[in-house]
Amino acid sequence: MKTMTCKQLGGACDKEFHAATFEEISEMSKQHGMEMFQKNDKHHLEAMSKMRTLMQSADSDAMKNWMIRKQEEFDALPDN
C-alpha cells in the first residue's frame, strides 16, 4: 500500500488515500473530487478548474504527461 494526498493528485486538501496501485488511488481521488464538487467546496473547485485547463491545453500531451509524472511519483513512494 502507498499513500498520496489530495494535493499530490492535483486537489486542494491533505486527505490521504491509500492504495496498492496508481489506478486505485486515482479512482479514490476522483470520488473525493466528486464529493467536494457536490459540496461546492471552493478550494476543490479551483483545483478542478486548473485540471480542466490542463486537459484543454493546446499541448495535446499535457494531461498525458501529467499522468505519467503522477504514476512515477506513486511508483517511487515507499510501501506503508
Your description of this structure?
With 80 residues, the chain is mainly alpha-helical. It has one domain. The protein contains three helices and two strands. A two-stranded antiparallel ribbon has the order 1-2. The protein starts with a strand and ends with a helix. The model has no long low-confidence stretch (mean pLDDT 93).
What secondary-structure arrangement, pairings included, does this model have?
Layout: E1 2-5, E2 16-19, H1 22-38, H2 42-55, H3 62-76
Antiparallel strand pairs: 1-2
Helix/strand structural class: mainly alpha
Q: What sequence of helices (H) and strands (E) makes up the elements?
A: EEHHH
Strand count, sense and barrel status of the largest sheet are: 2 strands, antiparallel
Shape summary: flat
**Terminal-residue CA separation:** 5 Å
Got a strand count?
Answer: 2
Helix tally? 3
Rg, Cα atoms, Å: 13 Å
Name the average pLDDT. Answer: 93
How many domains is the backbone divided into?
1
Strand content: 5-15%
Q: Spans of 5+ residues with little confidence (pLDDT < 50)?
A: none
Oligomer: single chain
Strand order of the largest sheet: 1-2
Helical content band: 55-70%
